[in-house]
Design goal:
This protein is mostly loops and 276 residues long. The protein has one helix and no strands.
Length: 276
């Protein structure tokens, strides 16, 4: 389908017509008011939407790959299964938007974007860089795919990411205090010096992850898997470690005082001394 001409696009905007399934590739709509418009399944590849208002717009299945979305307003927009791979989102406002199933791989300039209250259910954020940011604090990331994502020093306090896949992610020095990370996959992830105080972390998989000097006080890790993980210097004071698998883990200098260890498996673990 050939791309619409700029003249045709502006006429459709004036008449408040639907852009569903239309080709708007490379379009320049900086600062335009496109709120509550229908862009379902539209192609906006490499479009410039800088400063545009797309509040409550329907962008479901929309192709926004490599688009310029700086300061764009997506409040309460429907972005379910939209493709934003490689988009530039500096200072974009996604407050309350629905990004269920969306592709957010390699989005850039993300540090100052706003994602408060966003739903990322089954979204793909692989390779995105959230380092040193608080943009997804208290966001809903249930079952989100976040393999190799950079969350170093990120603030994730009280974030809900139950069932998410954070394999090989970088979470060094991140703050997850009070987060719901039940059943999250952290295989081969880097979590050294992170704060996991009071987290809900039942049945999470930390196999071969680096958790050096992590604070895990009073968290619920029951049924979690730490097989082969590096837990040197971890503070488990008061944590629930019932039925946890520590097989072949490094627990040198780990603090297990006050932890609940019923049913825990320490086969082959290093550095742990338990009273008989």
């Amino acid at each position: 389908m050939p791309a619409l001409s700029m003249k045709k696009i502006l006429k459709m905007i004036d008449k408040k017509q639907s852009f569903a399934k239309q080709n708007l590739s490379l379009v320049q709509l900086q600062g335009k008011d496109l709120s509550d418009r229908d862009f379902e399944s539209a192609i906006l590849y490499s479009a410039d939407l800088t400063g545009a208002n797309l509040q409550e717009a329907n962008l479901r299945f929309c192709d926004l790959k490599d688009s310029l979305l700086r300061t764009t307003r997506f409040r309460l927009a429907n972005l379910r299964e939209a493709d934003l791979q490689g988009a530039r989102v500096e200072e974009a406002d996604f407050w309350g938007a629905d990004l269920t199933g969306a592709n957010l791989c390699e989005i850039t300039d993300i540090k100052y974007a706003a994602f408060d209250g966003v739903t990322f259910f089954e979204a793909n954020l692989t390779g995105s860089d959230f380092s040193e940011s608080n943009v997804i604090q208290q966001a809903k990331l249930n079952k989100a795919i976040m393999k190799m994502v950079n969350l170093e020093k990120a603030i994730l306090t009280k974030t809900i990411m139950e069932g998410a896949d954070l394999s090989e992610a970088n979470l060094k020095s991140s703050i997850l205090e009070g987060a719901n990370i039940n059943s999250v996959i952290f295989k081969n992830a880097k979590l050294s010096d992170a704060n996991l105080k009071r987290v809900m972390c039942q049945r999470a998989n930390f196999a071969k992850a680096d958790l050096t000097n992590v604070t895990m006080q009073y968290g619920d890790f029951s049924g979690a898997n730490f097989e082969g993980a590096n837990l040197e210097g971890v503070n488990f004071d008061g944590a629930n470690l019932r039925d946890v698998n520590f097989k072949n883990a490094n627990l040198k200098k780990a603090n297990l005082s006050g932890a609940h260890l019923q049913g825990a498996n320490f086969e082959g673990a290093e550095g742990v001394k338990l009273s008989s």
